[in-house]
Each structure stands twice: as C-alpha cells, then as structure tokens.
Amino acid sequence: METFQSLLAKKLSDALAKAGLPNAGELTPATDPRFGDYQTNAALILGKQRGENPRTLAEKILAQLDVGDLCEPPTVAGAGFINLTLRADVIARKAGEVLRNERLGVPKATSTRRIVIDFGSPNVAKPMHAGHIRSIVLGDALARIAQFLGHEVIRDNHVGDWGTQFGMVIYGWKNLLDRQALQRDPLAEIVRIYKETNESAAKDPQVREACRQELVKLQAGDREDIDIWNECVALSMQDFDHVYKLLDIHYDIQCGESFYNDRLPGVVERLLKSGIAEISEGAVVVFFRDIPELADKPCIIRKRDGGFNYATTDLATVDYRANDLKADAIWYVVGAPQILHFKQIFKIARREGYKADFRHIAFGSILGEDRKLMKTRSGENVPLRDLLEEACRRARRIIEEKNPDLSEADKMEIAQKIGIGAVKYADLSQYRMTDYVFSWEKMLSLQGNTAPYLQNAYVRVRSIFRKAGESAPKVDELVLGDAAETNVAKRLCQFAEIVPQVLNDFRPNILANYLFELANSFHTFYEACPVLKSEEPVRSSRLALCELTGRVLQRGLDLLGIKVPEKM
Ligand code: ARG
C-alpha cells in the first residue's frame, strides 16, 4: 500500500521528466494547512540552479502534473511553491484501506538490514541513575521501529563490567565489606566500599598499590578475585534487571566489556601489523594526521603499562558485531560526551576496511528544575529505580482522584502504564540533542503533549465502544462530511509516512508529535461530531474513524515502548 506522499512524489518526477526538467526539490507535507496538504519546492530549486523565474517554472511543471485522481487542482503560491490539496473522496477511500490494513498502511523497508543496537549499557558496581533513561528509552524505541519496518534487530547491552575500578572494589570487598549491609542493599554496599577505598587510596600510597595489585591479579585470572568480581557483576545485573522489568526492556545479547577481554591483544597486534597504529612513547597509538579536527587527538589503544582501555574494547566489539554477528549497521545510543570517542573508533574501523554503517546516536542531558544536571537533594545521582517507582506512585494518585471506583488490581496496572509511559514519553517527545528539564507536573499532566494525554485519548475511544456495546463495524470507505472528520482521516493516513521518517535522523519525537496532533484532531472531531447518535451511514463511518484512531494511537505508542490502559 502506497502513501499519498510517495504517490505524489512519483507524479512530480514524471511531470518534471515530461517538462524536460531534471529531478529536483522535495515533496513534503505542507507546513501550513492553509496551503493544502503537500507542497513541493521543485520550481524554487530549479529556478536557482538554472537562473530562471521559479513561478514560470512552476507553471511549466503544473502543465505536466497529472494529479487529478488524488488532488484538487494544484496551485502556485509565493515565490514558486506548488501546493497540493487531497480530494475528500480520495481520503475517504484511503482511510478505508488503512482500516483494513494490518500494518495501518506502514510499508516495510525496501532493503532490510541486520542492525545491532547498543543501548543502555550501564557500568556495573554502580546503580543506574536518571541519566541512563535516555539511552534505554531511545534505543528501545528505535529498535521497535526498525523491527516494525522489517529490519532484523539485535539488541545488545554492552555492560561496563571490566575496568580499573575493580581494583578498588575488590580491595574494599576484602577489607571493608559488611555482609549484612550487602544483603539489604547490595549495590549501596558495593558503592560504599568503593568510595571509601577510593578516599583512602587518595591519601595512602600503600592502599593505592594494594588496589593496583588486585587489578593485576584479577586480570591474570586469580580465582578469589574472579569470584568477587563475578559476584559484584551478578548483584549489579539484578539491580539492572529490576529496572528493565519496570521499563519492559529486553535484550537479545548482553556482551559486556569483559566478553572481549581475550580479544584485546589481537586487536592491537592487527592494528600494528597493518600500520594503522604505531608505537609512541611506549604506548600503542592511532594518529589521525589527515583529519584536521582529530589531528591533535590521537587514540591510545594500549597504554604504556601494557593495559588496554575503552577504545581497545570498542574496536574488538566492532569486529565481533561486523564479522561474527554479520551486522550491516551498528547503532550506538550513547550520550553526547562520547562523540569524540566514536569518531575515532569509526575512523579506525573504516581504515581497517569494515563496511558496516556505523552511527553514534548521541543525546543531551536531563536537567533538574534548577536547570543543572539532575541530582538528589544531597547532591547524588538519582537512582533510576527510585525515579521509576516514584513515577508509578504519582500516577497512582492521579488515578485515585480521577477514577476512585476502579479495583485495586486495575489501579496498580494502570498506574504502572501511566507512570512509566509518562517518563518515557517526556524523553521521546524531545529532540534527542536538546537538554530537557525533568518535571513531574508536566509529564504527568492530562493536558498537553504528554503520555497520559495520549493514553486518555485512547481510553476515550475504548469507552465509546464499551458504551455502544458493539465492536467496530465493517466499513469500506468513510463518509467525510465535516471538516473535523476529514482532518482526522487525513492524519490517520499520514501514520504510514511518519513512521519510516523516524529512522532518517533517529528522531522518535517526530512520531510523538504526530500522535499528539492526531489526539488533538480527534478531540476536535469528537467535540464537533456526534458518533453514536448520528444516522447511518455516518454513524458507522464515525465509529470506524474512532476505531482507527484507537489503533493508530496504540500502535504508535507501542513503537515508543509505551502501553495503553483500557480505562483510566
Ligand atoms: N558503559 C558506557 C558508559 O556508561 C557506555 C557504553 C556504550 N557502548 C559502547 N560500545 N561503548 O559510558
């Protein structure tokens, strides 16, 4: 099933060819509904390219543009835009098609790829904090959308489970551990022994040396140290799993840093042999002398003391994903502070000849109401688990107020959907590179661009059918009389255009904003047009419109990882 946009784009390129003009410009949704539904800047672009009058060019294109089967007669506006308005009967028919379509008209990608998505990827021996939410939620949404478009997705949790911090953790474990505290709150106790060791190491060279020794022993495979390390990792994973369960996050593989341990010497050897790396002041280093922005930023892959680092591990990871997993694309959903790191890694991988499509999907920070990085009152990172539990508690209060008669079980389930949904949506509805302020009031509001608002729109649809005591009638084609009705139908047809767009620049906020506008149009329609009290065939058509709105909201939110309640 083809979208209006792709049908019109084809007609435009046919018209350009017939007019003896090269393909140019874009066919996009209109920026302002007063100008119609779609527009193209082809004449403007060609005018500039050829030094001709764009309005004359636009007329020339119009003379060849055969869109009568879809649109009202097109018009030229402004400096040379061509505006297109869909015919109401065409929208009515298309909406009927979407209604019958299992995928709501969303086409599968023409070339499907195997994509490894590296997201979440927390470091062990520390609890996950609020800042981790972005990578998790963004990565999960992109994975869902890529999968829905037909790609094969491998979700990988690249856990930071191997690093210099373990020298201190193991030293602390052997000297400071309180077993009872460990039982009560394992991660808190691990953090405590780590912090205290860190402090005494700063003061006492003997402690420092002892920590270094532990690290050497761990890396050499000492049984006792390996056992301690294993226990720390397992305890951390338990904490992570709790968060993943709350967020409904699933991984296909969890190949943490330690997984690549015995591949690291091979990476360095290979890079030295190929001449991509060289020895500099005792370390093994890759220089980027030919790239101005990286010219003074070499990448160390083996330290002077022989130790490997984050970059070495990532190079081994590239090899595993490209050669063992046979990935066509590798997406790293990691915050903006690592932009330089990934530039270096991707450059090195290219020099080695890896062909995969590497993408660093970066994002900004979450700020507290004071516009600084979000912290607890005592200045600590906010544990993600606490934050999510608080979200559910607050959602619970809202439901208690809105619908006190619901059963206990219903309240629990709905609170979880709304609370978690609100946190996810607050993140996904922002452009990923912008820093945003975390605000409970805003994200849990039933008004505005929030998850509860969209969930409420879905619930409204469901309640219409509950009230009617019937399911959606079979309708081939809608009857569109009222402008509000046509508007909703048009938006519903656009779902198919929006979903694939998200992956162009990894922007789930495009989908979020679309759903918000759909809910707004639906709201307007619902206020303006009686549904159950209208006469046939209008009644059935309006019910179908409600049904389709519900399905698009549900599917759209599902692609963002957000669940809908049946009532709230
Ligand atoms: N563990 C890292 C951190 O918390 C993120 C890892 C991202 N993935 C990667 N392949 N480097 O900063």
Supply database-style keywords.
568 residues; alpha/beta; four-stranded antiparallel beta sheet; 20 helices; 8% strand
The bound ligands are: arginine
Number of strands: 13
Radius of gyration from the alpha-carbon trace, in angstroms: 28 Å
Query: What is the percentage of strand-forming residues?
Result: 5-15%
The biggest beta sheet, please?
4 strands, antiparallel
Name the shape in a single word: globular
* Helical proportion, percent range: 40-55%
Structural class of the helix and strand makeup? Answer: alpha/beta
> Reading side by side through the largest sheet, how are the strands ordered?
1-2-4-3
Tally of contiguous helical segments: 20
Give a quick rundown of the structure.
The chain is of the alpha/beta class and 568 residues long. The chain has 20 helices and 13 strands.
Model description:
- The chain has 568 residues and is of the alpha/beta class.
- The chain is 53% helix and 8% strand.
- It is built from 20 helices and 13 strands.
- It has helices spanning 4-18, 42-50, 54-64, 88-100, 133-148, 165-176, 179-184, 186-203, 205-219, 223-247, 264-273, 310-324, 339-351, 384-402, 408-428, 440-443, 451-468, 483-502, 508-528, 538-559; strands at 27-29, 38-40, 75-77, 81-84, 114-118, 152-156, 278-280, 283-286, 299-302, 329-333, 357-361, 366-367, 436-437.
- A 4-stranded antiparallel β-sheet has the order 1-2-4-3, covered by helices on one side.
- A hairpin with an 8-residue loop joins strand 1 (27-29) and strand 2.
- Helix 2 (42-50) crosses helix 3, helix 14 crosses helix 15 and helix 19 runs antiparallel to helix 20 (538-559).
- The chain is globular and about 85 Å long.
